[in-house]
């Protein structure tokens, strides 16, 4: 088994780490680079994984996964580039950061893959979109598919689509949690106990998601099936149109796509 280093074990890094451990990856084959001592101790206790300085992890591993904030990427690459060598694979999970940005900062012959994951990976229902850098082999892509496939689905996409993907599946869980929060609050306004409103909303989301996935039916058709003539759903949907929810999603996702592009510029 190859050695994998995860540099930056915050929300997304720990999500990947926990998934790899759940999937049966030996902790001896995993290394973590994390700068805060307290956080390092926490991860060592929770997973039994070795937390070591970034350079040690990067020098030892076959695959180095970068899960720091886009704004920290330049510093981390400057730190580990001197110990990287041809034949290693660098995988970035950071929004906005291009493979060209990374390739310009690592030695010749280091393969680079860009990934946009999402947090449902925590329950093995992640969605990861992966794009190869300029000198990346089929074996490198297969390694990343195996890595991310242990926590959900993986899709290969051209890198030019990564900013839009970030706006859909990377940030997407937050939009859906926001909708869930809003429905729960509305249920409470309608007089339901909070626990009841929460149960009803979550099961409705899970059931609707399962219908979408298992029937393959277009969401507009599924929506029409719920919308009885002159009924309750029609009354509700009219309000969502009046309040321009569809336009708000378009504006929100354009903002996410644009922010991803800005992060590439280092801001
Ligand atoms: N959260 C999400 O849903 C998603 C996140 N991503 C991407 O994942 C990356 C991480 O995001 P997220 O997990 O949310 O952010 P976090 O801030 O939770 O995690 C980043 C981690 O990196 C650590 N870190 C910072 N500098 C270094 C360094 N030099 N060496 C080692 N570790 C370091 C931070 O430590 P400290 O806190 O001490 O600074 C922190 O633990 C980002 O690039 C983001 O774009 C992608 C898709 C989804
Ligand atoms: O908000 C962010 O920047 C990260 C990238 C996608 C989801 N979270």
TrEMBL record:
It catalyses: L-proline + NAD(+) = (S)-1-pyrroline-5-carboxylate + NADH + 2 H(+); L-proline + NADP(+) = (S)-1-pyrroline-5-carboxylate + NADPH + 2 H(+). NCBIfam families: proC (TIGR00112). Keywords: Amino-acid biosynthesis, Cytoplasm, NADP, Oxidoreductase, Proline biosynthesis. Belongs to the pyrroline-5-carboxylate reductase family. It is found in: Cytoplasm. The lineage of its organism: Bacteria, Bacillati, Actinomycetota, Actinomycetes, Propionibacteriales. Residues 159-263 form the Pyrroline-5-carboxylate reductase dimerisation domain. Its EC number is 1.5.1.2. Pfam families: F420_oxidored, P5CR_dimer. GO terms for molecular function: pyrroline-5-carboxylate reductase activity. It is an enzyme of class 1 (oxidoreductase). Pathway: Amino-acid biosynthesis; L-proline biosynthesis; L-proline from L-glutamate 5-semialdehyde: step 1/1. Residues 5-96 form the Pyrroline-5-carboxylate reductase catalytic N-terminal domain. It comes from the Bacteria. Catalyzes the reduction of 1-pyrroline-5-carboxylate (PCA) to L-proline. This is Pyrroline-5-carboxylate reductase.
């Amino acid at each position: 088994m190859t050695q994998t280093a995860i540099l930056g074990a915050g929300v997304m890094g720990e999500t990947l780490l926990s998934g790899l451990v759940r999937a049966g990856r030996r902790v001896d084959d995993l290394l973590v680079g994390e700068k805060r001592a307290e956080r390092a101790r926490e991860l060592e206790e929770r997973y039994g994984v070795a937390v070591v300085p970034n350079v040690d992890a990067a020098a030892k591993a076959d695959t180095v996964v970068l899960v720091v904030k886009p704004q920290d990427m330049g510093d981390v690459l400057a730190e580990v580039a001197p110990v990287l060598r041809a034949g290693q694979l660098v995988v970035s999970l950071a929004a906005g950061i291009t493979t060209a940005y990374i390739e310009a900062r690592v030695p010749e012959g280091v393969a680079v893959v860009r990934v946009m994951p999402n947090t449902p990976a925590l329950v093995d229902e992640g969605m990861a979109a992966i794009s190869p850098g300029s000198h990346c082999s089929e074996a490198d892509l297969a390694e990343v598919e195996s890595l991310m496939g242990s926590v959900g689905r993986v899709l290969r996409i051209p890198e030019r689509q990564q900013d839009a993907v970030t706006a859909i599946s990377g940030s997407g869980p937050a939009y859906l949690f926001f909708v869930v929060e809003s429905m729960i609050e509305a249920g409470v306004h309608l007089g339901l106990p909070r626990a009841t409103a929460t149960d009803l909303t979550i099961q409705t989301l899970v059931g609707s998601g399962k219908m979408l996935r298992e029937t393959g039916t277009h969401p507009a058709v599924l929506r029409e099936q719920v919308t009885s003539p002159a009924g309750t759903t029609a009354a509700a949907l009219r309000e969502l149109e009046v309040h321009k929810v569809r336009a708000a999603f378009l504006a929100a996702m354009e903002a996410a796509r644009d922010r991803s592009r800005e992060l590439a510029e280092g801001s």
